């Protein structure tokens, strides 16, 4: 079977470890020795309840999630969280400050790419507060309109008592990511945030969750991620939420906040162990298998080391291609993502040749997002270092061939 599997560099849904897929195939027929497949078994069965508790523990342990935070599992992807975060945190703000008018409530958004832009747009659509764009990376970009950088610290203007402060840690489409080195100018400016022990800081970790430790995790109010990059199949959203942000949304509505649909209220998920309704059973199952495997390998520190080597190798060959005038990275180097590396192949027809050559070697899904173009290499956890080496070798070969062609 393995000979026929492509190396899938797709941005999500994306590659999953082969051993997990094989185990999941067995679980589809017979889950936990019950004789019932995972897609058929009741989510209220004791076997599934035990599995769900284990999935939560696997995340808590590997990311060091403190007891101040609850882990919730929902559906609806990142997109549902664009809305859920606004509604739950505006309800919280209403309970804390019942007398403020809507125009006096502020939500801070840091915009560094397509996904944070979309999140801010949804916040604007829902209303209930004013939006302050705390920073917009387009302003500090090379052409004034691209998402090609993480803004320098002096570009941020946070509000004093916002209902939420939002950022996207890794912009999957644009290949831009905050640096985890707190001294780097491309790090998230935690030191500039208003001083508040219960800061409503929200981070979208959809495309970097479990790829390495999360800096200052305990200082966040909400961290969320769709599973479909590093963790499992689409359909599952993982939310780490500080307990003070799980509020009585109905009490807030009585004070004038927008009513929160039951399927988006953190409280209903927290009170019912993430099962106010049927959870995405299969997606949770595969994610649990991935997380078990990740723990056995050494957890997020293991992946941090491997992912660092993987991205260093790809950026190195990209740099060589740039020196030859054949490749061009889309992102300023200190802002480059570990997970999604976006670049152009320069020259008439060259990109098509690049993609066709990769495809012939079984390397797929390298075409960039339709809004950006070019090439996007996604290096999620399931992409091995050996597979990365194969891609790098292919790119080196491609560069050599193109150099010969252009010199002849
Ligand atoms: C960083 C990020 N945020 C949000 C989303 C939207 O997630 P979903 O498609 O699960 O709604 C994506 C999707 O790729 C993403 O990469």
Automatic annotation (TrEMBL):
What's a single GO MF annotation on this record? O-phospho-L-serine:2-oxoglutarate aminotransferase activity
What sequence ranges are listed for the domain Aminotransferase class V?
Answer: 8-391
Check the record and name the SUPFAM superfamilies matching this protein. Answer: PLP-dependent transferases (SSF53383)
List the catalysed reactions: O-phospho-L-serine + 2-oxoglutarate = 3-phosphooxypyruvate + L-glutamate
Q: Which UniProt keywords apply?
A: Amino-acid biosynthesis, Aminotransferase, Pyridoxal phosphate, Serine biosynthesis, Transferase
Quote the pathway field.
Amino-acid biosynthesis; L-serine biosynthesis; L-serine from 3-phospho-D-glycerate: step 2/3
Could you tell me the EC number(s) of this protein?
A: 2.6.1.52
Gene Ontology biological-process entries? L-serine biosynthetic process
Required cofactor names: pyridoxal 5'-phosphate
Name of this protein: phosphoserine transaminase
């Amino acid at each position: 079977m393995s000979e026929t599997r492509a190396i899938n560099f797709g941005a999500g849904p994306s590659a999953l470890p082969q051993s997990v897929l094989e185990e999941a195939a067995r679980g589809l027929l017979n889950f936990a020795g019950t004789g019932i497949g995972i897609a058929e078994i009741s989510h209220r069965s004791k076997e599934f309840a035990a599995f769900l508790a284990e999935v939560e523990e696997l995340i808590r342990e590997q990311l060091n999630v403190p007891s101040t935070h609850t882990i919730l599992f929902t559906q609806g992807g990142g997109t549902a969280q664009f809305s859920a975060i606004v509604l739950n945190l505006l309800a919280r703000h209403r309970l804390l400050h019942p007398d403020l008018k809507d125009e006096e409530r502020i939500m801070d958004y840091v915009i560094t790419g397509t996904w944070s832009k979309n999140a801010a747009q949804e916040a604007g659509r829902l209303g209930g507060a004013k939006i302050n764009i705390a920073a917009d990376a387009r302003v500090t970009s090379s052409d004034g309109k691209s998402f090609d950088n993480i803004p320098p610290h002096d570009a941020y203007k946070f509000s004093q008592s916002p209902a939420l402060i939002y950022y996207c840690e890794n912009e999957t489409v644009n290949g831009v990511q905050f640096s985890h080195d707190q001294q780097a100018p491309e790090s998230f400016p935690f030191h500039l945030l208003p001083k508040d022990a219960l800061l409503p800081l929200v981070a979208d970790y959809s495309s970097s969750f479990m790829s390495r430790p999360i800096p200052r995790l305990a200082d966040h109010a909400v961290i969320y991620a769709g599973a479909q990059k590093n963790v499992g199949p689409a359909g599952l959203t993982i939310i780490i939420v500080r307990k003070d942000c799980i509020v009585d949304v109905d009490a807030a509505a009585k004070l004038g906040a927008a009513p929160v649909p039951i399927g988006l209220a953190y409280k209903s998920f927290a009170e019912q162990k993430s099962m106010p309704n049927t959870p995405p059973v299969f997606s949770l199952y595969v994610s649990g298998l991935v997380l078990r495997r990740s723990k056995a390998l050494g957890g997020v520190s293991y992946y941090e080391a491997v992912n660092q080597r993987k991205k260093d190798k790809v950026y190195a060959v990209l740099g060589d291609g740039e020196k030859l005038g054949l490749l061009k990275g889309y992102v300023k180097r200190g802002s480059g993502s570990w997970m999604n590396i976006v670049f152009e192949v320069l020259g008439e027809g060259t990109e098509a040749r690049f993609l066709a050559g990769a495809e012939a070697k079984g390397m797929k899904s390298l075409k960039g997002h339709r809004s950006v173009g070019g090439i996007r290499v996604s290096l999620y956890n399931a992409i091995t270092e050996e597979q990365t080496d194969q891609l790098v070798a292919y790119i080196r070969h491609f560069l050599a061939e193109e150099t010969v062609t252009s010199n002849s």
